[in-house]
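In this section we walk through a basic example: taking a raw amino acid sequence and producing a predicted 3D structure, encoded as discrete structure tokens. The instruction is simple. Fold the sequence below.
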Amino acid sequence: MTFCKDIYNMLSRKYPNRNIYLISDEHFFHENIIDYGRSQFADVKQMNEYIIQKHNETVGLEDIVIFLGDFSFKKGKIKELLARLNGHKYLVLGNHDKSAIVKSYPLLGFEGVFTMPIRLDNAYLSHEPLVANQNSNPTFKLIEAEFKKVIGAHNYHGHIHEKTSFDETRYTNVTCETLDYKPYFLGKTKSLFAKESPLFINDPIFGECISYISDKYKVSPYFLLKDYLYTFALSSLTDYMESCFIQGSVGLYKKYGFISDFSDIDITFLYDANASKGKNSNSMKRIVDHVYQSLLQVDSANLEYYKRYVSLRIFEILLTTTNPYYVKCYIDSNLIFLDSYRQSDYSVHSGISLLEKFIRKYKILDTTGYSFPAYQCNFVNFYGDVANLLLQLLFEDLNPNKRQMIIKKLKYILKNGSEEFDPKALEDVFIRFFLRNIALFNTLNRNDEIRRIQSLYPDFLTYFSSIKDFPTSKLMNPSALKETFMDIYAQISDIDPQEGLEKSQELIREYRKR
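The resulting token sequence is shown next.
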């Protein structure tokens, strides 16, 4: 299990049997550094020229060089610098490389940019050394802990501009000053590589396919890339169909074809009432980490956890390519300590990426030698989709634009859903999902949402009907949300938000007996 992206196979596939070099902390155009350890140089110009000279004396035109951060202090000069430096160039961001403009780096000449440490097999490459108290980022700490457990692993790092006292059997400092500015030879890429492998996003052919489809069929390249990444994520969940299902905007697109600027994939884990909270949480952790590690295979994808709690895990996928495209996606997973679902709430849905559909339909590319992601997962059913959108309107204080987008989704689903509408079926799902939300917000200390729902009691039907373009005639049938739900709603309306989980569990048990 690894949280550190391994790019060795990707490099070997693109550039077989090539030399790999490492170097860090060039600090091009950094005037003040001359007073802090580089006094041999008269000025920045002399320093820059010396570093370029040493680089090109060592690195050949077709070699690979990986810069471990703090490359240049003048972002406007990066393209000019890279044009003068030999090799296929990759960058691991350092603390002085502005992550805010990371999407620009591939356009300037880097073939790949990484926001977190990376691996080449057992060689861990980072800006700061993988030791305690060097970087507080949660994902960095996961990689640091992983590195310490891997037998035979070695950390090549920069950041520290002088010789270090770290264990030399496990750490090598490759900052410029320690190497006399000559890049460090790490080894070679593989000479042979497996024929069948994922279609790498930074392959020229990938960019050509994206551009062709975008120009000819007027499909946004960003949409194609997002769909490809989410399909990749769904494919990694295929083996865990019995443990989780998919909800949210990605699900609406994959099932109904509703196209929006979907921002995340929502994975909901089924709570096993016969197991402890700890076992349920560990099951979620194992599966989400598997999805994370699967997405690390995507060559341009940078992954980073930013919420990693007992019942909630979210990580970001940042895609930087040389095509040039820049995409942000999120995987949002949650486990609700409540047995609020029935088997009828979800069903199996399978599919492939939109990119593959276009490629195969119009014979854009000979796909021999490439593998594409495909998935077969459980998705929440029609009534679950409707209930989730209604609950979004009810629980969240949305701005008018977001509210109208939800109304648009509701109308689209009601029109394109294959089932004949059954008010009682919606009531059943809505009640259980309502209690699910109370339990979830309690677990995450999101008390404002609970207080909001309490403030609407007992006039929430009036609230729905007051929303512009709300499909009142179909969804506000008195038999659907008036009787049983109002009884449950009354019991939630005056509880302390901190008691939400316990009360939800009690009400679910009572409801299931009815």
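Looking at the output, two observations stand out. The longest strand covers residues 326-335. Residues 423-443 form the longest helix (21 residues). In the next section we compare this with other chains.
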